[in-house]
TrEMBL record:
ATP binds at residues 211, 248-253, 282-283. Requires a divalent cation, most likely magnesium in vivo, as an electrophilic catalyst to aid phosphoryl group transfer. It is the chelate of the metal and the nucleotide that is the actual substrate. Pfam families: PfkB. Homodimer. This is Ribokinase.
């Protein structure tokens, strides 16, 4: 009975997304970072010193801000809820860049004493990266009432709520609880904090999107080939709390497994001439998938739209700066057979 009610709730949520997605903005609750890039030929071994191949560069980022920028560029309507520091110059710089992408940042708070979050990105020559995050203001939300009245109203009126894991779990739970109470679908990108996702949060999510590494961590199962990815996704669904798992597979594309009884759906990656920087590509994918679902596209079309967007993102350096405009995604899909 619980499973049947859960699936009915998901279908009602998807119907609401289809009917109102064009009029209602996507709301993103999450992190805002200054991404500091260190370019190296490879990751140094323990005790080894390497010389960077370029001077450090600073780009706007944070998983929340990246997804907000992607959603705004793809839809023109996205509200960002987050925190930046009041003790440094990074915060306003990051917000200016988000606004340039079309993001509504009026609900972003400025912490009076904390620094803006920072991510130190070690970028290798082949585009792969390793990242160290300093949470700063992203981790210091108010204890008693983390979400203000304006944020609560925005979530209740959203077409979809996007969450990630670079802010405290209690904030995500508060946001997701508000969304589900208003019939708003909740999409959780599992990237960020590497601790276990709470059962309380998972039970509030409509869709959960991990990459292979995150899926392995969530299930304790190997994910080193497609068959094992599928088995791990099914194991995650077997817990009875999650309705849909959308696994990001990098250069192999993505896979969707649902509790609706449908066969798993696979979407191959779009051809990429050169991978420049993979930072933010997963954020782009998750945001684009949410946008496509909110517009009423079916699951297969939504996967294709998200994969096309992510394939464009990896061809530009930076996270937020790599998020493609909608017309770029549409042109790519129009020129590539389904």
């Amino acid at each position: 009975m619980r499973c049947a009610l859960l699936l009915l709730t998901v279908r009602m949520s998807i119907s609401r997304m289809s009917a109102t997605g064009a009029a209602r903005p996507i709301v993103v609750v999450g992190s805002i970072n200054a991404d500091i890039y260190l370019e190296v030929p490879r990751v140094p071994a323990v005790g080894e010193t390497l010389i960077a191949t370029a001077d450090p560069r600073i780009f706007p980022g944070g998983k929340g801000a990246n997804q907000a920028a992607a959603a705004a560029r793809l839809t023109g309507r996205c509200q960002m809820v987050g925190q930046v520091g009041g003790s440094d110059a990074y915060g306003e710089q990051m917000l200016e860049r988000a606004r340039a992408c079309g993001v509504d940042t009026s609900l972003v708070a400025r912490h009076p004493t904390a620094s803006t979050g920072q991510a130190y990105i070690v970028l290798q020559a082949d585009g792969d990266n390793s990242i160290i995050v300093v949470g700063g203001a992203n981790q210091l939300w108010p204890e008693d009432e983390p979400l203000g009245a304006g944020t609560r109203e925005a979530i209740a009126c959203a077409s979809c709520l996007l969450l990630q894991r670079e802010i405290p779990e209690r904030v995500n739970i508060a946001a997701a609880t508000l969304a589900r109470a208003s019939g708003v679908p909740v999409v959780l990108d599992v990237g960020g904090e590497d601790s276990a996702v709470s059962k309380e949060l998972l039970a509030l999510c409509t869709s959960v999107s991990p990459n292979e590494t995150e899926l392995a961590r969530m299930t304790g199962l190997p994910t080193d080939d497609d068959a094992r990815v599928l088995a791990a996704a099914r194991a995650l669904l077997a817990g009875g709390m999650i309705s849909e798992v959308v696994v990001k597979l990098g250069a192999r594309g993505c896979m969707r497994v649902g509790a609706d009884g449908r066969e798993p759906l696979w979407q191959a990656a779009f051809p990429v001439a050169q991978v420049v920087d993979t930072t933010g590509a997963g954020d782009c994918f998750t945001a684009a998938f949410a946008v496509a679902c909110a517009e009423g596209r079916d699951v297969g079309a939504s996967l294709r739209f998200a994969t096309a967007a992510a394939s464009l993102a990896v061809q530009t350096r930076g996270a937020m700066t790599s998020m493609p405009a909608r017309e770029m995604v549409e042109r790519l899909m129009a020129g590539t057979a389904a």
